């Protein structure tokens, strides 16, 4: 497994139940019900990759306006492919299972982190990497985004160094979300 960089785009929505809202002051808040003068938002994780027919992509024609989410009607080549979102209206048909599924979703933990950090332009995502060679001996590398059983991907912030206080906070959050029966200090010794 490897980490691959992706971009996060936040766009306004008319949905009545989005996961986050942006206030007039630009601050983000996790909530399904807006306060007055807050604007509902969805998050889209995009990568520059080949977009096949039936997949969603992000199109930015202008600086602020004409930003659109579209479903491709043909193979588009390399484009800004949507690999995960908070928008449950984006669905894909799975030919193997013959079922329609939501595009992989962001976990609530990722949405909380996005708001706590005041937004993130770039994130790391976990990928399985397949390496092979074609008939001419050229190296082919294919990245498959790791989607967990709950149809979610996990985002990791792009950051080079961490302070001790940040690590303790992240570790405490991980402990609180994963283990209720062990003390924090014992969990820290076993996991770090």
Give a quick rundown of the structure.
With 192 residues, this protein is an alpha+beta fold. It is built from three helices and 14 strands.
Describe the structure.
With 192 residues, the chain is α+β, with helices and mostly antiparallel strands. The chain folds into two domains: 2-160, no CATH class; 162-192, no CATH class. It has three helices and 14 strands. Strands 1, 2, 3, 4, 7, 11, 12 and 14 form an eight-stranded antiparallel beta sheet that branches. A two-stranded antiparallel ribbon has the order 5-6. Strand 2 (20-23) and strand 3 (28-30) form a beta hairpin. Mean pLDDT is 78; it is low at 62-66.
Key words describing this protein structure:
about 15% helix; about 190 residues; 2 domains; single chain; alpha+beta; 3 helices
Order of helices and strands: EEEEEEEEEEHEEEEHH
Indicate the mean pLDDT.
78
Structural class: alpha+beta
β-strand number: 14
Number of helices: 3
Radius of gyration: 19 Å
Number of spatially distinct domains: 2
Profile the largest sheet.
Answer: 8 strands, antiparallel
Topology (elements, then pairings):
Layout: E1 2-12, E2 20-23, E3 28-30, E4 38-51, E5 56-60, E6 67-71, E7 77-85, E8 91-94, E9 99-102, E10 105-106, H1 108-116, E11 122-133, E12 139-145, E13 152-153, E14 155-157, H2 164-178, H3 184-191
Parallel strand pairs: 10-13
Antiparallel strand pairs: 1-4, 1-11, 2-3, 2-4, 4-7, 5-6, 8-9, 11-12, 11-14
